[in-house]
């Protein structure tokens, strides 16, 4: 086995061992662990001679890398995976298409054109998944309250995304690019893995794979503990007395200005003291709490649900319905009916 491949494999095994405890407890760590496992299979495929059938099987595992990277992005930064049937279908497609394309081209002479079409379809799926992963990375950055995750997301995802995208583009779109991509991988993969190990070993990723904390429920009045930071009482008063969350499109920067705090300090308060990992989840927690009170109140029995949604800070009825279902497990209409109020949409 070439020295660079042996080094890369050693780094992968170390990462797999380091992340095993977290992978057994959290979805994000499990997705990253599976991504590292697929990379290990690719290193072994490139480093050692394999019988044709085994090499064909390992090619499918290599094709799973973009989809596992996509799942890792969703689990880590959106903190939500698509329905199980969706991501299992995606994984099946991205693994089966390369197998099918290679089988058609090598074992069925008449199937070369069909193999090319199947191969292009597989490439298209890879690009869509990578594009969506990068979109999630950028879209969620402003609302992320976990400092460790904000600090290292550009390294862990930005560097790996650029690496994977560049290799995919070289292999699929540039004539002769497959040889260049294979040569580049011999150097890029060990370097990236070594950097990952350094980050994990120095504990700077604390919080990256930690389970989602249960947020503290809003209280009717600010009730910060005596030992709590004094800024916390000011934040609670702003939310519970001034009702800043009712402002549609409220940003962390705007709220920081209202409570006279730097943005980084406000992120720390909301995350460490109240348990929220995303700013929108923090706002929606208050918005949904008020909406529930109004849906159950006899005084608001005739108020349309759309009016309530807009008045508590949501920008549209569809956004409100989705957030409400995620929190209460039912639609606003069902919640109102359970509390014996007429349903007025």
Structural summary, described in words:
- The longest helix has 30 residues, at 112-141.
- Helix 1 runs antiparallel to helix 2 (27-47).
- The chain is 72% helix and 0% strand.
- It folds into two domains: 3-201; 230-338, Homeodomain-like (Arc Repressor Mutant, subunit A, Orthogonal Bundle), CATH 1.10.10.
- The protein has helices at residues 3-23, 27-47, 52-78, 84-107, 112-141, 147-173, 177-201, 230-240, 252-258, 263-273, 279-296, 305-311, 317-328, 332-338.
- The protein is built from 14 helices and no strands.
- The radius of gyration is 25 Å and the shape is elongated.
- It has 345 residues and is an all-alpha fold.
- It holds the Pfam family HTH_18.
- Keywords: DNA-binding, Membrane, Transcription, Transcription regulation, Transmembrane, Transmembrane helix.
């Amino acid at each position: 086995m070439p020295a660079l491949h042996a080094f890369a494999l050693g780094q992968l095994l170390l990462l797999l061992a380091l992340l095993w405890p977290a992978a057994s407890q959290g979805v994000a760590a499990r997705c990253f662990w599976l991504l590292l496992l697929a990379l290990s299979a690719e290193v072994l495929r490139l480093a050692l001679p394999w019988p044709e059938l085994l090499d064909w099987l390992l090619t499918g595992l290599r094709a799973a890398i973009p989809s596992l990277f996509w799942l890792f992005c969703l689990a880590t930064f959106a903190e939500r995976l698509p329905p199980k049937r969706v991501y299992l279908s995606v994984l099946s497609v991205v693994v089966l298409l390369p197998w099918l394309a290679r089988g058609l081209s090598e074992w069925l002479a008449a199937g070369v054109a069909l193999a090319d079409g199947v191969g292009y379809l597989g490439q298209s799926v890879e690009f869509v998944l990578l594009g969506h992963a990068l979109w999630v990375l950028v879209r969620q950055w402003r609302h992320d309250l976990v400092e460790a995750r904000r600090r290292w997301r550009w390294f862990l995802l930005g560097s790996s995304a650029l690496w994977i995208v560049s290799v995919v583009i070289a292999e699929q779109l540039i004539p002769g690019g497959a040889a260049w991509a294979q040569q580049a991988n011999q150097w890029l993969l060990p370097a990236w893995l070594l950097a990952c190990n350094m980050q994990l070993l120095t504990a700077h990723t604390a919080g990256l794979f930690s389970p989602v904390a249960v947020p503290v429920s809003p209280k009717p009045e600010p009730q910060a503990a005596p030992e709590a930071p004094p800024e916390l009482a000011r934040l609670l008063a702003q939310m519970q007395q001034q009702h800043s969350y009712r402002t549609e499109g409220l940003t962390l920067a705007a709220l920081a200005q209202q409570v006279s705090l730097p943005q980084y300090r406000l992120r720390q308060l909301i995350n460490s003291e109240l348990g929220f990992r995303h700013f929108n989840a923090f706002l929606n927690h208050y918005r949904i709490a008020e909406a529930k009170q109004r849906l159950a109140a006899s005084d608001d029995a005739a108020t349309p649900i759309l009016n309530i949604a807009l008045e508590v800070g949501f920008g549209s009825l569809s956004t409100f319905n989705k957030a409400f279902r995620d929190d209460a497990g039912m639609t606003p209409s069902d919640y109102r009916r359970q509390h014996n109020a007429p349903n007025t949409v």
